[in-house]
Amino acid sequence: MKAIGIILIIAGILMMIFTRFNFKTQKKVIDIGELEINKTENNRVGWPTYAGGVVLLVGSIITIVGFKKK
Question: Exposure check for the chain: N or C terminus, fewer CB within 10 A?
């Protein structure tokens, strides 16, 4: 239980620092025999800063409860 809490704390801190990330996908538009046309799309995934704070808070609570059970 403590390990999950620590992982959530680290994830929460990273979510507060990095509020989004980008990645590219490649789609096949046309494929006729030897002719192939591809399209590259840029995608973005983002979240609000307070979401990282919530994850950090939950991780802290789980870690504290894990230490108190011992």
Answer: C
